[in-house]
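Quick illustration for those who missed Monday's session on complexes.
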Amino acid sequence: MVGRGFLGCFILCLSLASVCAIKGTLNSIDDLRDKEFGHTSPRHGLMLLHWLANNIHIDNNGNMRLNFNPTRRDYGIHLYGNRPCSIPFLLPESGRYYSLGNMNSFGSMNALPYYVTQRFYNSRRPENNRDRVILRVREEESNQFIVDEVYVTQHYPPNQYRGSAYDPDNTYRVNVSLLRQIQSLPTIDQIEIPRIYNVEINHNSLQSLENIWGHTPGLALLLAIVLYFTRPKTFLFKEQSLRLTSQPQSGMDNPRVEDDNTLIKLEVKTTDRGKARIIWSGIPKRLLDQGVMVVLHRNNNSDSKSELDRSSVGGQASGSYNTSVPLNPGLQVRLHKEVNNWWTYLGFGSTIGEEIWRGSEFHNANREIPVDINGHDASLQLFVKDGKACARLYVKKSFTAWKKMFINSWVGFYSSEGTLDHKTWQWAVKFSEESRSDWADIPGYDVYVYESSMTMSPGVQVRFILEKSGGEKARTPPWERLVQG
Ligand SMILES: *[C@@H]1O[C@H](CO)[C@@H](O)[C@H](O)[C@H]1NC(C)=O
Ligand SMILES: *[C@@H]1O[C@H](CO)[C@@H](O)[C@H](O)[C@H]1NC(C)=O
Ligand SMILES: *[C@@H]1O[C@H](CO)[C@@H](O)[C@H](O)[C@H]1NC(C)=O
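Prediction with 2-acetamido-2-deoxy-beta-D-glucopyranose bound:
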């Protein structure tokens, strides 16, 4: 199968050499400026590239190593078969191509941070899922993933009916020097910007971008530099009217309103009783004056009538509300207008009006990727189900002797990083195999789970203890006590 697809691709590439040729190499941020990649709202390419640059280690010789494991499908990355040859030829011995950024792919919604996924939840336009980063990756021993090549590419516009092919005319190789430039943005001296990046930065504009993307170091500056020439209108700065990456002729539904809403943050967090806690911030005054409410839903697909809980924001631009809904993967907060009717005044509460904004789904991985079990081809992950702490073991298929090796190993559940005593535990070999359907796309791994009876709360941690040869071999980051993503 693979061989035939490969040969077919090869022949196609030979006969359509021009189709397979990429357009060139991007050596600097400057080179991104006149390209399409990620330039118009709601496309996410620039966020994706920024995220990658910050999750890749580059040594002095320009060798690149990933901070995550693509074979485990971390962050939703998946193998890309290189059909129909958008990118130069894949030589089987030299590595495999992976594609990052498909927002519909299993895993990406739960692990890529909100600054990358935000537009995907809040734009109904198909443009929001076109950009991709392609990596050529080689696995060295001990789970080291070396990146030989990086490309940016994009799907054809949905209205051209070109299927899922990538557009070679908009495919570029990314030089390691471009990734280095993105990495260094947070520490750059602003006086140096004109010299290095060949642009004058309007400081009001940069500030307005910082207001939105300031929690992600370097992103505002990247957007300011890349979008500066392509759309000078981007920088018509009016109070609260941030015409960020919108392009009027691209048919923005309502740029002013969407940009204003970009500051809104809606999150699901954990109470100390394993229930969902709604946190909101950045609600513009315009909306507070009208009256808005936060509404909790089972997931992004549930229709607006099947809410689980709700609360008025009570005129507060930021705040929180503890629900009585057990925490589960997929939960989502939506912001709605609050409609007051005559029955409101009789004390029956208000009704839900038009939807304004959505947060991301709360997911299993909760933006945390599994941690490696030291010295073994396996990893450990903490997740929540029905408000209880649960653990997942990823065992590499090639690690066939794992049951023998882990015969006396156990996973302990701890209430915080500091405690020595576990609250509950289970033998590693007693974990049950997770139903294949969800995980079918991780070909190299078997996945096992254990659902404990311990209530999830902030700080909870699981540790993997290899009894005989002694001691702890892995511990997850404490639940919700992690760097903001
Ligand atoms: C969320 O739901 C909206 C509306 O149904 C849809 O347009 C969007 O693609 C969904 N996003 C995800 C991540 O499923
Ligand atoms: C990558 O960038 C470096 C430094 O800017 C340059 O010397 C090199 O030729 C570039 N490589 C390619 C393939 O363009
Ligand atoms: C809501 O939950 C948080 C986290 O458990 C807790 O600190 C806070 O006191 C709770 N607030 C209320 C009003 O119960």
